[in-house]
Amino acid sequence: MIRRTALYLSISLAAIAQDKIKLTPAWSGLTLDKPISVVSPPDGSGRLFLVQQRGLVLMLPKDESSTQAKVFLDFTKRGMEAKNGMFEEGLLGLAFHPDFKTNKKFYICYSAQEPKRSVYSEMKISGADPDMADVSTERVLLEVEQPYWNHHCGNLLFGPDGMLYIPMGDGGGKPGGDPLRRAQNLFTLGGKMLRIDVNRTQGARQYGIPADNPFVGQEAVREEIWAYGLRNPWGIHFDEDGALWEADVGQEIWEEINLIEKGGNYGWSWRDGAGPYNAREMAGEKPAEGMKFTDPIHIYDHTQGISITGGIVYRGDKLSGLKGAYIYGDWGHGRVWALRYDKKAKKVISNEQILDAKLDAKGKGSFKPTAFCEDANKEILGLDWAGKIFRLEVN
Ligand SMILES: [Ca+2]
After folding, report:
1. Are β-strands 21-26 and 388-394 bridged in parallel, bridged antiparallel, or unpaired?
2. pLDDT at res. 128
3. What's the CA-to-centroid distance between 303 and ligand 1, angstroms?
4. Confidence of residue 362 (pLDDT cuts 50, 70, 90)
């Protein structure tokens, strides 16, 4: 009985505990539309570029109260989104080359129509204005056919190895469940983490296959694949220790966080969260005997949120209590968590909710995070799909 009371008390305290962080508006004088990423080139300039899904990339002004932002890239007339009111297409990623300072190259991912596909391109900045892209330099590296309008991902990232990592969703479709069974199919790129070398071409390819990719030399397999069995990776991040964090948006029940390793099979659509995917299990479908899956390091269910947004391992100074924690959130419920993980013991140490945007005293409606990004000082910015940028600060 005493133990029960103690448990009850601790739950009550947790429920009324103040949020650890608050959202402070930043660049609130700018008119923004579906921001999805903030990227800083590795050239010491401290510039921050804001990627917006409809195709306008802005250079965020140093003066955060400014109402003007310089346009870096304008893809708003590219017809990226299908005209059927769906919402997951557009300009979905931007990454600067590790040698950007000397070669001026960057990479983007965007949707294209007729046929529906994801395009991965290289481009250079303008010789006349280093704050602007030169669209005429576009070199298409890869195009991937997309059967549906959702789960395209696009959060491009260079690893510490200088290779470009490309997260690919399963291609979506209704009612979901990876209808084309792409995620487990090594002949296709859907539902994978790809790893390519942008510094060379190889045969007909506009990029090279790194020699240490896990499926190199195997017959009838896409050698770009680094890991597979992903559903809809929304947010990937390399921590300073080289770990690759990935948030995988789930089907109806689970949202998951994975640490992506070479050759790993992350389960989808045999597995959902840390168990079998119920629809396939109920249909009597089973994975082949002996198939090995890597389960997520953390999952949460749909009472907590409905669509995970991956974040970053915090390495800044201002939120001192969160140093070394993986900060992530939920697009549907506006919650933000800090997760601590012991990589040696392969165990979650803690997972603490640090913000519930719906409980915010001033909060009308919710914070719909599309990304958590670092500014030039490694402090965290939370991007809101409703067209806002926030700094995450101590409450
Ligand atoms: Ca999984």
Report:
1. antiparallel
2. 96
3. 19
4. low
d(CA 270, ligand 1 centre) in Å: 9
Distances (CA, A) of 329 to 46, 65, 250, 332, 369: 26, 26, 14, 9, 7
Task: List, for residues 57-100, the tens digit of each pLDDT value.
Answer: 999 999 999 999 999 999 999 989 887 767 889 999 999 999 99
CB 312 within 8 A of CB 372: yes
Distance from residue 123's CA to the centre of ligand 1 (Å): 33
Q: Looking at residues 36-47, what average pLDDT do you find?
A: 96
**DSSP one-letter code for 358:** G
> At which residue do the structure tokens 């006349």 appear?
128
With tokens 């890239």, the residue in question is 73
Which helix (H) or strand (E) is 341 found in, with range? strand 335-342
Residues with CB under 5 A from ligand 1 (ion): 266-267
pLDDT tens-place string over residues 204-226: 999 999 999 999 999 999 999 99
Q: Which residues of 349-377 are buried (b: 16+ CB within 10 A; e: fewer)?
A: eebebbbbbeebeeeeebbbbbbbbbbee
| 151 Cα to the center of ligand 1, angstroms | 15
Alpha-carbon dihedral angle through residues 24, 371, 299, 241, given to the nearest 10 degrees: -100
Q: What are the backbone angles phi and psi of residue 26, rounded to the nearest 5°?
A: -130, 150
CA 272 – ligand 1 centroid, Å = 6
Choose among 288, 244, 240: nearest CA to 264.
Answer: 244
- Rounded to a whole number, what is the distance in angstroms from the first to the last CA of the chain? 36
Tell how far the Cα of 231 is from the centroid of ligand 1, in angstroms.
Answer: 7
Distance 46 CA to ligand 1 centre (A): 36
pLDDT at 357: 83
What are 283's two structure tokens?
A: 């249909």
Domain 31-305 in this protein, CATH class: mainly beta
DSSP bridge pairs for 70:
59
pTM comes to: 0.93
- The CA 332 to ligand 1 mean position distance, Å, reads 20
Average pLDDT for 237-257 = 96
User: What is the domain partition of the chain in residue ranges?
Assistant: 31-305
pLDDT band at 17 (very low <50, low <70, confident <90, very high): low
For residue 177, what are its two tokens? 């469940």
Quote the pLDDT of residue 4: 41
What's the token pair of residue 150? 């959702």
What six digits make up the tokens of 251? 């089907």
